[in-house]
């Protein structure tokens, strides 16, 4: 049993090292909370961890004593003990008390995180004062609609920091789950109903994450479930207002400047526009919005949520989306593109910017 | 009727096992089939870990990965862990209560063959167009969208094997209620019998919801109904409820017998009676009861609302109390004891801290608001592997070494056993401990790959290394089994020397009628009581007399085979013209053989008193 003890010591040290070194990445880890929801959840995690480590410590002490002290030394028959009411009461009552310590804040937080009453407070225009975003999850991409602002974007959620943002969540094909680990826990996007919850994006946390949080799909949804990522650009509220204004300013598709991009636009209008919208308004029905809205594609940090947005990767995506995201709904829907066509389309897509 | 005493050829042995209704042979069948599926599920686990060893790996494709992960979970739960535990229940429980067999030997055989054919059917999907790929939970929107027949294999396979499990559970319940030896009151039953009893009750109540859910989904997929089709007014959340109303008790169906096995091992190798026996029984029953009240903790993020979430959170935390009672009772059984560290005891000792880890993360997960972060991440993966591997698989490995001599009459090699233990123990913690952190760092579960630059590389690599240790442990175990079987060194009634319960009072392996005379039970740990009074064995409760035994039968095999055939018909009905006839033929085989069984009187046979006395004279006869 010596070995066991050594091993436990070793694992304890390894654990310490892990805790010190590894809290994960600031844009992805739940251990670096960057918003009120994640912070409250982190506090609950800490509370429960402390209680549980306490329990483990007590058990470990008894365990070690037992294992070392009561090893068989002779052939004597030990005293047969039936039990002990006193001890049994102790190890029933103390855990109950410990659990209460955890249960009370759990219940409080569960209700607090579910408080979306602000979504029901509608003003004269039939809109909410609170910022509401409708999230629609689709096989392997995300749509974000801002009903009050009447704009739509995809793949990259843009939010203001330091204020509550409310979400309506649903899925349009199979069930997914909406999760921005460092900002708050997840909530499922069901096919049956709309779920509501709120998040708050901390400006300090956003700074640490370079203003770009990672979002994930957390419910198995098909082959590319692992690649159903999105990004969250969390910016100060004036910057957010600017973004909204410039999005709203786009009533006609953006006109590209270079000749190559104009060529690309023509191609796009032939083969792609049936799926991809390039104006941000939300007037068209959801059923018609079968692909990511590309109005501000040039501003996005990533292509399809997974590849850094640069010329090379856009080309890769257009040439062969299937290898990049197996089973995605764009593959094989637009015919073969020649390298020249891909160049033109890429030039066009890169000019789809609403901000300088 | 003395053919049973003769040595048989290979063909005769196979026929013997195909038709047996003897609980001990059915136990062997469960162990072989469960062991086989355990290896299959383990290989699937290795593929998973190899794929995730490095970022962006293309060892397996995305679609294939989903099939592997689905089959890993489904196989391990339904086709490995449960049957292996059923094996021990079958082998040991009737002996522990001093019975000659289970209440319904025929149904016992039927239960096994249903499980077996269901499992084979499910696994044939690999060769017939692809395995199911919607996870072992098979959530309705995804499983309805899944193309091909993978999900149909899952539905039909589990339906068939689930029927077998349900029969097994009912059989154990009736056996324990009706067939205890004289003096074996409920509060004298060994803990493994108690946990078998409670787990069987859980099966009785938990499997029907699964059956219903699977039926509805099967109708949606194969016969065009709309129970879970949202667009047609169906609701997918109902599936989640049905699945978890089954799924959560299922965890206890697995872990209670595991507790039972450890509750046998710890007293034997501590030479001390189980501390707080009655509170252990109480805790077992309470866990079983609470196990039905907490299913929605698997659904905290579904949007059931804060009231439901809060209630289920608190109910879930409550389960920690009886579980904690058990942990302390085990520790205090060892306290003051005289502990011998045999291989089974290694597992039992290691189980306590390992399972405790799984238990405490369970409490953490119960905290609904915090669970929004843990849910569907590797934190959960780590948690349930700590519970299921640290609890159930440890128990299965411990039970294998502990009961091997009783079942087969030979002793597994202790050195190799300890090597297996250490490899497995180290590999287990190496694989799963880090996964808690991977989850907290933002790694969702069920992903076929992860991208670079998210800080997940090291953790995943460590985890994969650990998996290889566990694989090595399994290889050593197999070698151990082969060596032991070849050597074939026979052992006596009580090979561990400190057996306390009835199974250790009879030969290893026991004769097919178990007890020549039913034993008189005078208290908890009946054999120990007799030993302490200086007696060698149990006092008989009846004079030597004729023993009534059931006849072997091939019908259970045929009934199950018919369903196996029918399942193919049901599945291919719409694709091929032969589907419908095959469905009908299959059902005809099943119902025909059931009919035959009903009309043909089968009264079993008697072993006469004289033959039993004969046996005493020529010792060493093989049963
Ligand atoms: Cu998804």
TrEMBL record, chain B:
Localization annotation: Cell membrane
Chain segments annotated as transmembrane: 27-48, 68-92, 104-128, 153-179, 191-219, 242-262, 274-295, 307-332, 344-366, 378-398, 419-441, 461-483, 554-572, 578-596
Co-factor requirement: heme; Cu(2+)
Gene Ontology MF terms in the entry: cytochrome-c oxidase activity; heme binding; metal ion binding
Catalytic activity: 4 Fe(II)-[cytochrome c] + O2 + 8 H(+)(in) = 4 Fe(III)-[cytochrome c] + 2 H2O + 4 H(+)(out)
Keyword Transcription regulation found: no
Alphabetical list of InterPro entries matching this protein: Cyt_c_oxase-like_su1_dom (IPR023616), Cyt_c_oxase-like_su1_sf (IPR036927), Cyt_C_Oxase_1 (IPR000883), Cyt_c_Oxase_su1_BS (IPR023615), Cyt_c_oxidase_su1_bac (IPR014241)
Pfam families cross-referenced by the UniProt entry: COX1
Keywords: Cell membrane, Copper, Electron transport, Heme, Iron, Membrane, Metal-binding, Respiratory chain, Translocase, Transmembrane, Transmembrane helix, Transport
Mode of membrane association: Multi-pass membrane protein
Pathway membership: Energy metabolism; oxidative phosphorylation
UniProt cross-references to CDD domains, sorted A to Z: Ubiquinol_Oxidase_I
Domain of life: Bacteria
Gene Ontology cellular component terms for the protein in this record: plasma membrane
Gene Ontology BP term (one): aerobic respiration
Domain Cytochrome oxidase subunit I profile: residue ranges: 9-522
Top-rank EC class of the record's enzyme: translocase
EC number: 7.1.1.9
NCBIfam families per UniProt: CtaD_CoxA
Family membership: Belongs to the heme-copper respiratory oxidase family.
Its biological purpose: Cytochrome c oxidase is the component of the respiratory chain that catalyzes the reduction of oxygen to water. Subunits 1-3 form the functional core of the enzyme complex. CO I is the catalytic subunit of the enzyme. Electrons originating in cytochrome c are transferred via the copper A center of subunit 2 and heme A of subunit 1 to the bimetallic center formed by heme A3 and copper B.
PANTHER family in UniProt: CYTOCHROME C OXIDASE SUBUNIT 1
Protein name (database record): Cytochrome c oxidase subunit 1
Organism of origin: Robertmurraya siralis
Lineage, top ranks: Bacteria, Bacillati, Bacillota, Bacilli, Bacillales
């Amino acid at each position: 049993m010596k070995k066991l003890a050594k091993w436990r010591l070793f694992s304890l040290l390894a654990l310490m090292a892990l805790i010190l070194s590894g809290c994960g990445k600031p844009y992805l880890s739940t251990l670096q909370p960057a918003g009120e929801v994640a912070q409250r959840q982190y506090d609950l995690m800490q509370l429960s961890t402390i209680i549980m480590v306490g329990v483990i410590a007590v058990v470990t002490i008894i365990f070690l004593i037992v294992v070392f002290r009561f090893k068989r030394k002779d052939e004597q028959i030990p005293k047969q003990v039936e039990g002990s009411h006193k001890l049994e009461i102790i190890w029933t009552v103390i855990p109950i008390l410990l659990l209460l310590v955890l249960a009370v804040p759990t219940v409080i937080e569960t209700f607090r995180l579910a408080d979306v009453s602000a979504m029901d407070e509608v003003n004269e225009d039939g809109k909410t004062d609170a910022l509401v975003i409708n999230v629609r999850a689709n096989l392997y991409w995300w749509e974000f609609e801002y009903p009050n602002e009447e704009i739509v974007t995809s793949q990259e959620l843009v939010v203001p920091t330091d204020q509550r943002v409310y979400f309506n969540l649903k899925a349009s094909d199979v069930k997914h789950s909406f999760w921005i680990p460092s900002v708050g826990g997840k909530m499922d996007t069901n096919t049956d109903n709309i779920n509501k919850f709120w998040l708050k994006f901390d400006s300090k946390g956003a700074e640490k994450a370079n203003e770009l949080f990672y979002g994930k799909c957390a419910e198995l949804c098909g082959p590319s479930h692992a690649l159903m990522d999105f990004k969250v650009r969390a910016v100060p509220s004036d910057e957010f207002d600017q973004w909204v204004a410039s999005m709203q300013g786009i009533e006609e598709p953006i006109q590209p400047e270079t000749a190559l991009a104009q060529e690309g636009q023509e191609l796009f209008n032939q083969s792609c526009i049936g799926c991809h919208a390039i104006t941000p308004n939300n007037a068209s029905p959801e059923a018609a919005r079968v692909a990511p809205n590309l109005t501000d594609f040039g501003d996005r940090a990533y292509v399809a949520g997974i590849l850094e947005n640069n010329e090379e990767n856009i080309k890769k995506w257009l040439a062969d989306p299937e290898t990049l995201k197996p089973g995605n709904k764009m593959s094989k829907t637009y015919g073969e593109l020649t390298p020249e066509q891909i160049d033109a389309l890429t030039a066009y897509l890169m000019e789809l910017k609403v901000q300088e | 009727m003395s053919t049973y005493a003769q040595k048989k050829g290979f063909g005769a042995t196979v026929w013997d096992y195909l038709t047996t209704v003897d609980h001990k042979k059915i136990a062997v069948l469960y162990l072989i089939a469960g062991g086989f599926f355990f290896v299959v599920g383990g290989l699937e686990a290795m593929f998973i870990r190899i794929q995730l060893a490095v970022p962006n790996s293309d060892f397996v494709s995305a679609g294939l990965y989903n099939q592997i992960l689905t089959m890993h979970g489904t196989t391990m739960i339904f086709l490995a862990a449960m049957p292996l535990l059923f094996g021990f229940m079958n082998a040991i429980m009737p002996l522990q209560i001093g019975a000659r067999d289970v209440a319904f030997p025929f149904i016992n055989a039927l239960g096994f063959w249903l499980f077996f054919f269901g499992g084979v059917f499910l696994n044939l999907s690999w060769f017939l167009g692809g395995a199911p790929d919607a996870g072992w939970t098979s959530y309705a929107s995804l499983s309805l969208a899944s193309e091909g027949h993978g999900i149909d294999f899952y539905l039909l396979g589990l339906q068939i094997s689930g029927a077998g499990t349900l029969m097994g559970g009912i059989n154990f319940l009736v056996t324990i209620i009706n067939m205890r030896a004289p003096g074996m009151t409920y509060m004298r039953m060994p803990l493994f019998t108690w946990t078998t009893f409670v787990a069987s009750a859980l099966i009785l109540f938990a499997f029907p919801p699964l059956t219903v859910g699977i039926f509805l989904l099967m109708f949606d997929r194969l016969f065009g109904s709309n129970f879970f089709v949202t667009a047609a007014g169906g609701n997918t959340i109902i599936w989640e409820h049905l699945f978890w109303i089954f799924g959560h008790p299922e965890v206890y169906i697995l872990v209670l017998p595991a507790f039972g096995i450890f509750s046998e091992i710890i007293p034997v190798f501590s030479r001390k009676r189980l501390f707080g026996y009655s509170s252990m029984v109480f805790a077992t029953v309470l866990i079983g009861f609470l196990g039905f009240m907490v299913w929605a903790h698997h659904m905290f993020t579904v949007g059931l609302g804060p009231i439901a979430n809060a209630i289920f959170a608190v109910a879930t935390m409550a389960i920690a109390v009886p579980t904690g009672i058990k942990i302390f009772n085990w520790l205090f059984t060892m306290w003051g004891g005289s502990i011998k560290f045999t291989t089974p005891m290694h597992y039992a000792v290691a189980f306590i801290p390992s399972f405790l880890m799984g238990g405490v993360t369970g409490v953490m997960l119960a905290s609904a608001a915090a669970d929004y972060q843990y849910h569907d991440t590797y934190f959960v993966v780590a948690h349930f592997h700590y519970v299921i591997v640290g609890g159930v698989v440890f128990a299965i490995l411990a039970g294998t070494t502990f009961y091997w001599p009783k079942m087969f009459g030979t002793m597994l090699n202790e050195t190799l056993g300890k090597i297996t233990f250490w490899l497995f123990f180290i590999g287990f913690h190496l694989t799963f401990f880090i996964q808690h952190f991977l989850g907290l760092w933002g790694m969702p579960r069920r992903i076929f790959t992860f991208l670079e630059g998210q800080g997940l590389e090291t953790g995943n690599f460590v985890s994969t290394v650990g998996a290889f240790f566990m694989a090595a442990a399994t290889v050593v175990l197999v070698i151990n089994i082969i060596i032991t079987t070849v050597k074939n060194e026979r052992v006596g009634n009580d090979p561990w020397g400190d057996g306390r319960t009835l199974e250790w009072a009879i030969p290893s392996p026991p004769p097919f009628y178990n007890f020549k005379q039913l034993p008189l039970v005078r208290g908890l740990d009946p054999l120990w009581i007799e030993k302490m009074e200086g007696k060698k064995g149990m006092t008989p409760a009846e004079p030597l007399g004729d023993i009534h035994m059931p006849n072997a039968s091939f019908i259970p095999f045929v009934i199950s085979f018919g369903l196996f055939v029918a399942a193919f018909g049901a599945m291919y009905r719409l694709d091929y013209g032969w589907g419908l006839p095959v469905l009908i033929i299959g059902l005809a085989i099943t119902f025909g053989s059931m009919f035959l069984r009903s009309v043909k009187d089968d009264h079993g046979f008697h072993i006469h008193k004289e033959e039993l006395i004969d046996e005493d004279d020529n010792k060493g006869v093989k049963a």
